[in-house]
Amino acid sequence: MGGTSRALGNLRALTILLVVSFHSVLAYLGSQPDVQPAFDAPPFSWRAVPIIDHERWFGFDIYCAFQYVFLMPLMFFLSGLFVWRSISRKGVRIFLYDRLLRIGVPFVLASALLMPLAHYPVYRVTASDPSWSAFWANWLALPLWPAGPLWFLWQLLLLDLSAAAMFRFAPGLGERLGGISGNLGSSPLRYFLGFLAVSTLAYLPPAVFFKPWEWSQFGPFSVMTGRILQFAVYFFAGLGLGANGIEQGLLESDGKLARQWRYWAGLAVAAFFAWLGVTALAMNSQPPSFLIDRVTDILFALSSASACFAFLAVFLHFASRPVAVARSLAENAYAIYLVHYFFVIWLQYFLLGVSIFALAKGITVFTGALALSWATALGLRRLPFIGRLIFSERSAGAVSTRPVAAQIAMTAGIAGSAVAQSSSDERRA
Predict the structure, then answer these.
(1) How far is 392 from 381, CA to CA, in rounded Å?
(2) 175: burial class by Cβ within 10 Å (0-12, 13-18, 19+)?
(3) d(CA 343, CA 365)
(4) pLDDT in tens, 54-83
């Protein structure tokens, strides 16, 4: 395994940590309403923020805003990197079968079975009858089927199907995309400017009608309406860069992008805070200004692209060596993604009546949900059918859990320490 593969594996480990942490702190955002919305009241805003706690910290708002800008585009980019070579190796038919089995089946099963269990606490917060039977009746009465973060799976599957169709009916288009990516890969700035232009053009038309935080939903299929084309651009950018192999060009572990990590990190920070500032100006502008709104959209696209380049550069430069814990996280990331929402919501629910600072609650939920999700992933790996379904054949049942189990125990212990320290600080105050 080359340095780029190891760096991307470590980045994948960080990505699942960010996903779990993002959902873990949503209950404690300072911008949320004072009370929990009713479960059966349109527009069912609890789909985005399931539990609302009385403890708040505005630092979480900045943290989540930054993740909201770049995290999902980065996940689509990473998902596209190995697609073209996978189709070339397996053929269209086997590739489609594998994608339907590994993405489609977990999406259906988790949406149908796990998501109702995950959302049961959301109903209990405001319910006059907290019984399961009453919840189930209310759940079935909803005009939609909330699937939480599983929305990513069906959109990824749709993009995989599009890539397979391209390979079957227009293989020259994929090869041309790979050639363009290879030619520009030696110059990160040129590639970035071209990528920024395409991703901005894909984002601007929907952004005229939809804000980046607006959603549409049909049954269990949720869509970030204003960002769906943006996600497609990131996926196919990853496909193009991965078509000729990832150990060369833009993603070379000791290439120009890695060596220029300071500039990309600085650009990402500057673009994010510029977007925050102009967004605040746009929200306070009465009447709304078309010009300010479009500047906000352009800065949003710039912040997304620059943050993704910054994370790639930093990890290519600093994280191209194997790390045992990161490897386990990366190999179990998919299973953790599937189950973490259940643990996050229940832990947030259990902490509603606990009087500790929001920061301590967020840390507690994150560490608890991560430890429980990670342990569940390791357990699922041991189940013959589930192991083959969720994990690759190479890794299913093949990874020793002993050193990782110690890390999980240490991770879970952080939560207790955070609670104890916060309670001690509160008593002293």
Answers:
(1) 10
(2) middle
(3) 8
(4) 999 999 999 999 999 999 999 999 999 999
